[in-house]
């Protein structure tokens, strides 16, 4: 691979021709809650949506129309427009009709996140639209506008150079709770000028999603609104491997930001599962480790209670054998294929590792070649606080 | 059905010929931590064990020997004897050999609960055995001896009378965390004198278990040690329906006690799922509702956030349709087949219901005839506290 990936500023606006911004439409007490990403030209768009059967109205709207190109994305936080039935879709139509009186739009897309089961306040959104400066190029304002319980905005951009010339790629995401490998209340918007063929967009997006957003979990709940959008102006160069790698770096950065910002999380932990019978079985184990309440509370307590990890593996209904299993906290092996290596010294070292903000736990099943790395966080008092008090 | 079920005292010792007690063997600072249930005659025994692939040593010991009758159960708390390999089984053999020098035992069974991945302290257990008064009939001491994070002992007994004569049945259980529909760190011991045929014991136990212990969840984790034992002296009467009903009442009482005693739980909630395509799909939905962190924290916050319930149904990968779904908190319908019925008055009423210690949430999918009721609890700060600090 002869290409170089360099981080640059600008988020989604790092790509020429992309405008973005955010305003306060009155959903949040202060701070941005309504934003847009747009371009003057039509952009090819690929997308992935939640596997939740109750897909929110904005997702149904896009799927019903089979949108393939767009020049405008409108996004709001605080209301998911989910479980709102046909009225939810009509609300989107009315809002986008209003928007079309302000600026020329083609196949506009709306994207929402927030509380489920409440109709959108269209008037607030219209008033917010009135405030838009369509010529702003401020990715950060957009990133802020889509935040719900997020504590920081999630943005990244790269410039990629190689024999093929160069392209740029930028992304913005939100998500802090209701996050699960099946893509859950996270929204992600990626712009690029890579000249990627339309038929490869969807394929590459799906492939990269599997090892990035589908590898993270905050709480095991899969939302009604998860969406990842990839849009291109096609003005730059393109080479498949370079693009795939850059897209992976963008999505991995944003996915890990979501884990680090997990509601109440104090730690981000990578569960590196190897030696499973298949990749699928490795993924099941990794997912169960990231969602087990007993594992998550042990992480919070910085307790190297490897028995809970072993028990979670055993409960995963995958092929496993306690005489082949191996568990390590970073380089500290605590259980080695039937042998408990957990003297005071080992425990102390494992405990030290768990005090870190980020670390890896290795679980080798010793059965086959299947491998998958899942990313999770701990479960703290604050998770309970945030979610017990969210709506009221 | 012509029979009468009357609650009586005595727990497992309500049955004639059953002895039980508990002592402090030094695992707990104070309080009982080692106990026995025994009889002079051999008892037919049926059992169900965890689906966790890493079954603990005591379970492997019973399965390896294919035990069908026994006259002695030895149980300890604070150490699960799990992930301890062949040594874990040898430890059991040595302990039971020691026990056989104190009292005549036939096919003794050991049962353990506690921390995973630590060898049993055989000397402590032997010293505990030395303290046993084998002629005690004190079910309550045994119930205390198997408690881990439990805050109260779980016991029940009934006398059943009918045309067939009469029999008694008594049970003891433990469990407060790591509880999941697939039977998780819960131990349950049931004695009876019902003259149940050996071939019906296993069948009825399994059937009743499906709607009792397999219907509860505290945290979604399935332990290495879950066990339910049913033992009979065969000295009493028997009638299949009467026995099944009495067994169900015993197991349901103990299962609900476990939910009520869920680690840090402030509420016990029944999720009554109906109208699913099949019983299996109803069970999946009920299980997901009892394990969803967002639902559990909403219960703790007494927040009638029905959107989280809907989202969990949609994420369950079962046949469902938002235009057919109906959700109610007891008799307060909040979402009715496409219509959001959630004005201030409805919200206030639903909130009032959620303040109760116990209540029901009804979820009708409106698709088919499948029904299942799952029992769960809320997720509180104390759950995190108990589990973050458990081992250290």
UniProtKB/TrEMBL annotation, chains A, B:
Substrate binds at residues 148, 174, 185, 263, 387, 392. The keyword Phosphoprotein does not apply. Gene3D superfamilies: ArgJ beta chain, C-terminal domain (3.10.20.340), L-amino peptidase D-ALA esterase/amidase (3.60.70.12). GO terms for cellular component: cytoplasm. It catalyses: L-glutamate + acetyl-CoA = N-acetyl-L-glutamate + CoA + H(+); N(2)-acetyl-L-ornithine + L-glutamate = N-acetyl-L-glutamate + L-ornithine. One of its GO terms (molecular function) is L-glutamate N-acetyltransferase activity. It holds the Pfam family ArgJ. It comes from the Bacteria. The active site is at residue 185. It is found in: Cytoplasm. It is an enzyme of class 2 (transferase). Pathway: Amino-acid biosynthesis; L-arginine biosynthesis; L-ornithine and N-acetyl-L-glutamate from L-glutamate and N(2)-acetyl-L-ornithine (cyclic): step 1/1; Amino-acid biosynthesis; L-arginine biosynthesis; N(2)-acetyl-L-ornithine from L-glutamate: step 1/4. The record marks 113-114 as: Involved in the stabilization of negative charge on the oxyanion by the formation of the oxyanion hole. Its main location: cytoplasm. Keywords: Acyltransferase, Amino-acid biosynthesis, Arginine biosynthesis, Autocatalytic cleavage, Cytoplasm, Multifunctional enzyme, Transferase. PANTHER family: ARGININE BIOSYNTHESIS BIFUNCTIONAL PROTEIN ARGJ, ARGININE BIOSYNTHESIS BIFUNCTIONAL PROTEIN ARGJ, MITOCHONDRIAL. Catalyzes two activities which are involved in the cyclic version of arginine biosynthesis: the synthesis of N-acetylglutamate from glutamate and acetyl-CoA as the acetyl donor, and of ornithine by transacetylation between N(2)-acetylornithine and glutamate. Belongs to the ArgJ family. This is Arginine biosynthesis bifunctional protein ArgJ. It comes from Caminibacter pacificus.
């Amino acid at each position: 691979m002869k290409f170089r990936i360099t981080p640059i500023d600008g988020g989604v606006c790092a790509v020429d021709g992309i405008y973005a911004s955010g305003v306060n439409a009155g959903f949040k007490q202060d701070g941005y809650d309504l934003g847009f990403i747009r371009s003057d030209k039509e952009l090819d768009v690929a997308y992935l949506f939640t596997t939740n059967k109750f897909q929110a109205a904005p997702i149904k709207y896009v799927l019903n129309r089979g949108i393939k190109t767009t020049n405008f994305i409108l996004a709001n936080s605080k209301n998911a427009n989910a479980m709102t039935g046909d009225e939810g879709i009509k609300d989107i139509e009315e809002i986008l009709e209003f928007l079309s009186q302000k600026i020329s739009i083609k196949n506009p897309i709306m994207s929402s996140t927030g509380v489920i089961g409440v109709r959108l306040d269209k008037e607030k959104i219209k008033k917010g639209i009135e405030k838009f400066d369509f010529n702003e190029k401020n990715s950060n304002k957009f990133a802020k506008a889509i935040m719900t319980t997020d504590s920081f905005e999630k943005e990244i951009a790269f410039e990629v150079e190689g024999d093929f010339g160069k392209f740029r790629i930028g992304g913005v995401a939100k998500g802090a709770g209701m996050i699960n490998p099946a893509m859950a209340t996270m929204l992600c918007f990626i712009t690029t000028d890579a000249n990627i063929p339309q038929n490869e967009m969807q394929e590459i997006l799906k492939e990269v999603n599997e090892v990035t957003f589908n590898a993270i979990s905050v709480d095991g709940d899969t939302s009604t609104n998860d969406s990842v959008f990839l849009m291109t102006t096609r003005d730059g160069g393109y080479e498949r491997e370079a693009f795939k790698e850059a897209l992976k770096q963008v999505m991995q950065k944003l996915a890990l930001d979501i884990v680090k910002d997990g509601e109440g999380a104090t730690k981000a932990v990578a569960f590196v599962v190897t030696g499973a019978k298949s990749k699928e079985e490795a993924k099941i184990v990794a997912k169960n480790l990231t969602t087990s309440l007993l594992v998550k509370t042990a992480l919070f307590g910085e307790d190297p209670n490897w028995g809970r990890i072993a028990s979670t593996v055993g409960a995963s209904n995958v092929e496993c054998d306690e005489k082949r299993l191996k568990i390590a906290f970073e380089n500290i092996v605590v259980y080695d294929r039937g042998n408990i290596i957990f003297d005071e010294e080992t425990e102390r070292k494992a405990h030290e590792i768990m005090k870190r903000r980020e670390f890896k736990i290795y679980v080798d099943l010793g059965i086959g070649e299947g491998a998958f790395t899942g990313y999770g966080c701990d479960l703290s008092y604050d998770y309970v606080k945030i979610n017990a008090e969210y709506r009221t």
